[in-house]
């Protein structure tokens, strides 16, 4: 309600300045200043509304976060996501999303991790 009355006031004020008989340089500057303030105010209002709409989906908390996306092919992507403290590696294609690995508990031994990767790779082929 307050914004609409302020906007109405700002749109009527330049009209009253134009109605004056002598259009001096000061009046023109005042009119230009008010018009600029109206445009900047509208831009800020639209930005605030857009930001509020974008945050509506995030009100429930941040249970799911995208850690990293790696495009492989034009329509294929690897996604590392975190869900409530657990990390998952997903394969995303044009037609489906598939869980590739649960990375919540990383192996302590890097050699075993390489062996596990080779085992998983061999099983998928």
Largest sheet, described in full?
4 strands, antiparallel
The fraction of residues assigned to DSSP E strands is 15-25%
What is the assembly state of the chains in this entry?
single chain
Query: Uncertain spans, ≥5 residues at pLDDT below 50?
Result: none
> How many runs of DSSP E, i.e. beta strands?
4
Number of helical elements: 3
- The Rg value, from CA coordinates, equals 29 Å
Observed structural traits:
125 residues; alpha+beta; 2 domains; 4-stranded antiparallel β-sheet; 3 helices; 4 strands; transmembrane; Flagellar protein; membrane; bacterial flagellum
Describe this entry's structure for a reader:
The structure is a single chain. The protein is α+β, with helices and mostly antiparallel strands and 125 residues long. The chain has helices spanning 2-18, 25-55, 110-124; strands at 64-73, 76-83, 86-92, 97-102. A hairpin with a 2-residue loop joins strand 1 (64-73) and strand 2 (76-83). Helix 1 runs antiparallel to helix 2 (25-55).
Entry summary:
One of its GO terms (cellular component) is bacterial-type flagellum basal body. The chain is of the alpha+beta class and 125 residues long. The protein contains 3 helices and 4 strands.
């Amino acid at each position: 309600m307050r914004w609409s009355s302020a906007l109405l006031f700002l749109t009527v004020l330049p009209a009253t300045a134009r109605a004056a008989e002598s259009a001096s340089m000061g009046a023109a500057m005042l009119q230009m200043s008010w018009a600029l303030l109206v445009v900047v105010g509208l831009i800020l209002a639209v930005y605030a509304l857009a930001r509020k709409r974008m945050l509506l989906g995030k009100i429930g908390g941040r249970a799911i976060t995208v850690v990293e996306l790696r495009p492989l092919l034009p329509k294929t992507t690897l996604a590392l996501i975190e869900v409530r403290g657990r990390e998952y590696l997903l394969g995303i294609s044009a037609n489906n999303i598939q869980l590739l690995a649960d990375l919540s508990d990383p192996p302590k031994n890097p050699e075993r991790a390489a062996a596990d990767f080779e085992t998983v790779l061999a099983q998928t082929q």
